[in-house]
Amino acid sequence: MIDIIERAAVERILVDPASRVPEASVAARDSASPLTVFRAEVSRFVNGAEHDARRVRLDALLDGLDPNALAAAAVRHALAGTPAGRIPVTVLAEALGFTEASALPTLVATVASAYPTGETTDPDAADAAVIALFEASGRTDPDERALRVQLLVQAYAATATLVERALALARSQDGAVSTRTLLESVLRDDSPVPVTRRLVPAERGGETLVVLHLDGADCEAAADRPARILAFGAGPRACPAPHHALAIAAAIVDTLRADADRDEETVRHADTR
Ligand code: HEM
Description:
This protein is mainly alpha-helical. The protein has a single domain (2-272), classed as CATH 1.10.630.10. The protein has 10 helices and 3 strands, in the order βαααααααααββα. The protein has a 3-stranded mixed beta sheet with strand order 1-3-2, covered by helices on one side. Strand 2 (195-201) and strand 3 (207-213) form a beta hairpin. The longest helix has 31 residues, at 142-172. The protein binds protoporphyrin IX containing FE. Protoporphyrin IX containing FE is lined by residues 43-44, 55, 58, 88, 92, 150-151, 154-155, 158-159, 162, 187, 192-193, 196, 214, 231-233, 237-241, 244-245, 248. GO terms for molecular function: heme binding; iron ion binding; monooxygenase activity; oxidoreductase activity, acting on paired donors, with incorporation or reduction of molecular oxygen. It comes from Agromyces cerinus subsp. cerinus.
C-alpha cells in the first residue's frame, strides 16, 4: 500500500476517472451478513455506472433536506442538551423520517466503525445495528433503505469531528473569531476525514491500492490562489453534502459557543458581587 500525502497529487488521483474505489461486492446475498449486504448496496464502494446511479438517488434525497431546517433542529437539540456528537445523526434521521431518531446515533456509531473496510471486532453487533437501522428507516425497498442509512453513517463521525475540532479551536482563540472561520480553519488544516483509499492503474498492469491523505501539505500552494481544501474530497465521489454538513455544524458550534459565553458572563457577575 502506498501513501500519497501532497494535496495536489491527492487531488489529481481523486479527479482521475481511471482511479476506482475498492468494491464491496456480495456473491450470495442470501447467505451474506447484513453488514456485507449494506456495504454492497451503498454508493461508497461501487464504481462506474452503478455509482453514478446511486449518487443521483443520494442527491435527490439530499435535495429534499433543507439545510436551514436541519440547522434549526440542530439548535433545538443543542439547547436541549443533546450531546454535540449525537446531534448530526439525530437531525438527519428526523428529517429523513426514521423512527426513534434520538436512539439511532449509538447504532450508527457501531456501523460507522465497520463501514470503511468491513472489518470489525464485533460482527454480531454490527449486523444487529444494520438490521435495526433498516427497520427504523421505515422503507422496505432494499436499495432505498440502504442509501438512507448510508447518509446517517457517512455524516456521523465526519460532522461530529468537525464540530469537536471547531469548538476546541474556539476555546484556544480569541472569542471574536467567527464560527465560519473556525469551521474553515478545521477543514483546511485538520481534515475530519483524514484519509480515503483508491485503486490506481499500476505501471506494469493491474491496480495498486493507495491511501490518500486529505490533510497533507499543499506544496503547490501559491500566494495568488486559495489553499487547496480536500476535506470534502474532490471529483465525482466528493462529499455530496457539504452544505448540509456545514449548516448542521455551524448551528451546533454557534449555539454551544453562545452557551459557554453566557456561562462565563454569569461567573463574572457572581465574582463581582
Ligand atoms: C450531513 C453530513 C454528511 C453527509 C450526509 C455526508 C454524505 C456523504 C456521502 C453519501 C458520501 C459518499 C459519496 C459517494 O459515494 O459518491 C460522502 C463522501 C465523503 N464525505 Fe461526506 N457527508 C457528510 C458530512 C461530511 C463531513 C463533515 C465531511 C468532512 C469534513 C465529509 C467528508 C467526506 C469525504 C472526504 C467524502 C469522500 C470520500 C472519498 O472520496 O472516498 N462528509 N459523504
